[in-house]
Write a structure and sequence with these properties.
Structural class of chain B: mainly alpha
Mean pLDDT of chain B: 84
Radius of gyration of chain A: 24 Å
Strand order of the largest sheet of chain B: 1-2
Oligomer: heterodimer
Number of helices of chain B: 12
Helix content of chain A: 55-70%
Mean pLDDT of chain A: 80
Largest sheet of chain A: 2 strands, antiparallel
Largest sheet of chain B: 2 strands, antiparallel
Distance between the termini of chain A: 42 Å
Number of domains of chain B: 1
Strand content of chain B: under 5%
Helix content of chain B: over 70%
Distance between the termini of chain B: 54 Å
Radius of gyration of chain B: 19 Å
Number of strands of chain B: 2
Shape of chain A: globular
Order of helices and strands of chain B: HHHHEEHHHHHHHH
Order of helices and strands of chain A: HHHHHHHHEEEHHHHEHHHHH
Low-confidence stretches of chain B: none
Shape of chain B: globular
Chain lengths: ~400, ~300
């Protein structure tokens, strides 16, 4: 059969591949991106960290904008943004376990608390009222807080391998309540309810970021520190997603049984997901309160977990850029709602009057989750995708 | 011995309210296979409606009539609210991932609770329970009347629910839909109607539970946390078992009361208020042994 086709077919001219357009899978794959965007010519190109030119440009632009921030924005906003960047680190952690590995966790606040107290204890004053070891260097307490939280995450993971879906959600919810209780009662470590303790000192090689210098104010320094740290953690998350482990996570999320058939070790993968996610949460916890300098054991409640879920879902589950956008959005929401009374006279600034800004803010949390899930389940990232696809295929939008 | 028995009675009282809440969760779960995290908000709104209705009604007929009558009306109002929520936010999500729907209910819970909190005010609102914290001696045991009222009311409601599910047309439809939605649909059961009905029933149950819980200290902004104690109860009993919900609720209530009574004496190093987290600790312990609860059906995995 094959011989007939060759003889009856058109005379075959051997096509030598031009150096610029090599076929996928061949040795000569140019890593340079050019031509039609979104058209991958090799697996390695598809899996590349920043796989298209627009993405490279966009990331560079965002990083530049972020670095410009401290020189244009006011200190109050910088402070909010610094906290938002830490929240983004925590949200990236939740994104790994929920968005990437598909394991529903309502217990993120607990891991955040573990990290916060580890960091505070290591860096705390040994002579003080609460437990402290006096090691103020950040390169010690930051990884340590992450690792302790990760250890708790791995300890919880056996439950995740036995339970699925909503059972797991409820169990992780129980974790928050038990954690809240322990934090409240262990006053030697946490200072006790309503009192709290001082947070870790953000000191790196002798330089304390929380003390302003002649050149920069305290807020500018903290902003830059948190921004750079967030970039590092985001790069880590993005890298994880394209690695062997990350793809195993997605396989477990999409269909755990099929993943098992492909010889992905479920208990190990889920433990890893919880561990890495808790590492992120622990680091975020350690960093979060360095901005305010003080924290209370009541901070690590269910609402904090829900906030993280809101960040991931509003941003876009499973995506790094979306999660960061969601974290910034949710963290800046209070700043936005504070401005509302100027436009809507019905809303009051006072806590004692009924339609006040704080109530509006909380209702917005709830409603935004609902609205996003109802109308755009892919979150902010989904909206971005739609805009992109619209312009990419314009004017042929069908 | 009497300390022990009194603790058990106290536990059975609050436990029966947990059972009621747990039933709400399980009814919604069986119909829609979603856990509704909006139950705390519904419970709170039921209690608040009762707290407004009782003083408005004044004293009617006999002691306590206005309270029970208000609870019944509050249950209907809350059921209507639950229907509204189901219609607006849950129905469009039929067929989507259960986790997503569960998170939607979480969002609704936050939003509704803020609105309800506005009606509570900063302190606790008295609910108008005629006996307050009065005690009575039954069989030599010193118990609070409110715990007896809880047990009685819940027993009544559960009996009514039993007859509803076993004898009525709608109960049959709900059981059919829980068993197999498509088969029920071909038999002419309106599955959408079953969803709505399950939310309404759960809302009504939550309202009754909230009103009963508030008989002690009144309605305050922290009351909603109690509704989450029903989650360990349903996990303990199994997510899809109505009997399990009742037994799980009672077990959790008794465990909580016993821990509250004896922990200071035997394990003071655990700190104060351990009773509040005892349900969650018990849940974790049971799950390590039986991942699908005591009465729940294990998930069958098909390859």
């Amino acid at each position: 059969m094959s011989t007939t086709t060759t003889t009856t077919g058109a005379p075959k001219t051997p096509r030598t591949p031009t150096p610029k357009r090599s076929l996928p899978g061949t040795a000569r794959v140019s890593t340079k991106v050019s031509g039609r965007p979104g058209f991958y010519r090799s697996y390695s190109q598809e899996l590349a960290l920043f796989n298209t030119r627009p993405k490279q440009v966009a990331v560079a632009a965002v990083v530049l904008l972020g670095l410009l921030g401290p020189f244009v924005l006011e200190d109050a906003l910088l402070r909010t943004l610094a906290i938002a960047f830490v929240f983004a680190i925590g949200a990236l952690g939740l994104n790994i376990v929920t968005g990437l590995a598909g394991q529903v966790s309502l217990g993120h606040a607990f891991f955040l608390g573990v990290g916060a107290y580890t960091a505070a204890a290591i860096s705390g004053d040994p002579e003080g009222r609460t437990i402290g070891f006096g090691i103020e260097e950040m390169w010690i307490w930051l990884p340590a807080s992450g690792l302790v939280a990760a250890a708790f995450g791995v300890a919880v993971a056996p439950l995740a391998t036995r339970l699925r879906g909503l059972y797991l959600a409820i169990v992780t919810l129980g974790l928050v309540f038990i954690g809240e209780h322990v934090f409240r009662e262990w006053s030697d470590l946490t200072g006790g309810a309503g009192v709290g303790r001082s947070a870790a000192t953000p000191q790196l090689f002798g330089f304390d970021f929380s003390e302003g210098t002649e050149m920069f104010s305290r807020e500018q320094q903290l902003y830059l520190l948190m921004f750079v740290l967030m970039l590092i953690f985001a790069l880590g998350a993005r890298n994880l997603a394209r690695s062997r482990v990350g793809r195993a996570f997605s396989a477990v999320r999409d269909r755990d049984m099929a993943a098992e058939m492909m010889s992905i070790d479920l208990p190990r993968t889920k433990a890893l997901a919880f561990g890495i996610s808790s590492f992120y949460a622990g680091c975020a916890g350690g960093l979060l309160y360095t901005v305010s300098g003080f924290f209370d054991p009541a901070s690590f409640n269910l609402l904090l977990s829900v906030q993280f879920i809101a960040m991931v879902l509003i941003g876009g589950a499973g995506t790094v850029g979306g999660t960061i956008a969601g974290a910034l959005f949710v963290s800046l929401l209070p700043t936005l709602t504070r401005e509302l009374p100027a436009f809507i006279p019905l809303i009051s600034q006072q806590v004692t009057e009924t339609p006040n800004v704080f109530q509006v803010e909380q209702i917005l949390y709830g409603l935004l989750i609902v609205v996003f899930l109802l109308f755009e389940p892919r979150g902010l990232f989904g909206i971005w995708m739609r805009i992109r696809i619209y312009w990419k295929s314009w004017p042929f939008s069908y | 011995m009497s300390t022990f028995l009194e603790a058990v009675v106290r536990g059975l009282g609050t436990g029966s309210v947990y059972a009621l809440l747990a039933l709400g969760f399980v009814i919604i779960y069986k119909a829609t296979s979603v856990i509704s995290f909006a139950q705390p908000a519904l419970m709170l709104s039921g209690a608040v409606v009762t707290s407004y209705l009782v003083p408005a009604m004044g004293v009617l007929l006999f002691t306590g009539f206005s309270f029970f009558f208000s609870v019944a009306i509050a249950a209907i109002i809350t059921a209507a609210l639950a229907l509204l929520i189901e219609r607006l936010a849950i129905r469009p999500m039929v067929g989507k991932a259960v986790f997503v729907v569960a998170i939607i209910t979480l969002g609704i819970d936050i939003a509704v609770r803020v609105v309800v909190n506005g009606f509570i005010g900063l302190g606790a609102r008295p609910i108008g329970f005629p006996w307050g914290l009065d005690r009575v001696t039954v069989l030599g045991l010193d118990v609070q009347i409110r715990h007896l009222v809880m047990m009685g009311t819940v027993a009544l409601v559960i009996t009514a629910l039993y007859f509803f599910f076993q004898r009525s047309k709608y109960g049959l439809a709900m059981r059919a839909a829980a068993l197999d939605q498509e088969a029920a649909m071909t038999m002419g059961v309106s599955v959408g109607g079953v969803f709505a009905l399950s939310w309404a029933i759960a809302g009504g149950l939550a309202a009754i539970a909230g009103s009963l819980l508030a008989t002690g200290a009144g309605v305050d902004r922290q009351l909603w946390i109690v509704a989450l104690v029903a989650l360990p109860a349903i996990i303990l009993g199994g997510l899809d078992s109505l009997e399990g919900a009742v037994i799980g609720g009672l077990l959790i209530g008794v465990a909580e009361a016993l821990v509250g009574t004896y922990q200071r004496q035997y394990a003071p190093w655990l700190g104060d208020n351990v009773a509040l987290v005892a349900p969650y600790a018990l849940m974790l312990a049971v799950l390590l042994v039986r991942p699908y609860g005591i009465f729940g059906t294990a998930e069958v995995r098909r390859v």
